Amino acid sequence: MLAKPLLAVLKNVPEPFVLDFATGTGRLSFALLSQPEFNGHIIALDLSQGMLEKAVAKLNARTLTSEQNSTVPPLASSRSSFGSATRGDKVEFLRHLSLPLPFPDSAFDAVCALEVLELFPNMDQPLAELSRVLHPCGILLTSRGTEESGRKAKVKSKADFGSLLTKHGFTNFQIAPWWKLFDRVFAMKNGVSSPVGARKLIDVIRCSVCGHRQWLREADVLKCVNCGKALGVTKEGILLN
């Protein structure tokens, strides 16, 4: 219901660059990495370091199992990636505490935000920001809280949810049953452009002080070349922003 349909709508993007916003324990990242045809790169972002540590552990356990069952050597790690023990450097982990997101406009081929929009005071702020970092004709995978969720104040009808998506530049949206409390939603950002393609976190994260995107990796620190702002890196490989 998640990974395979997402890859189907990204079939013309050979190496999609994916933002897994509010990844939690890495459910969607795990699902994508379980698909042999996925050749892209994921930035798994959450505000909770504890959740990200669980995601790293889960994905690392899957990697070890895969390697034990394979005669193919694991891909080499890259010094510029984070959480690099996980499946061939295809996912990196970022703790980021609040909006706005630390990425430039049109940075990703796909943005995923599952079971999270209802946690904001209103949905306009996160949808505007998710639209901003998604490139034209990129794919949004999100969810709509259903009438059975019990959170009546947060429930948007399918019509109202569609109007919100249209307001923030999305089109061709599909709202389909997923599970009792949430519908699965696919939408495309208006416009036309070439795919972004797989990149690394170090290529897209902006310095919160000066806005530059030039970084130097030093041991357990990522340092902005322009202003010297330093971001810590945990032993699990999580970048702390």
Describe this structure as you would to a colleague.
- This protein has a single domain (3-189), classed as Rossmann fold, CATH 3.40.50.150.
- The protein has 6 helices and 11 strands.
- The protein has helices spanning 3-9, 27-33, 49-68, 124-133, 158-167, 201-204, and strands at residues 17-21, 41-46, 91-95, 108-113, 134-145, 170-179, 182-189, 215-218, 221-224, 230-233, 238-240.
- It has an 11-stranded mixed β-sheet with strand order 6-7-5-4-1-2-3-11-10-9-8, sandwiched between helices.
Structure summary:
With 241 residues, this protein is of the alpha/beta class. It has 6 helices and 11 strands. The protein has one domain: 3-Layer(aba) Sandwich (Rossmann fold), CATH 3.40.50.
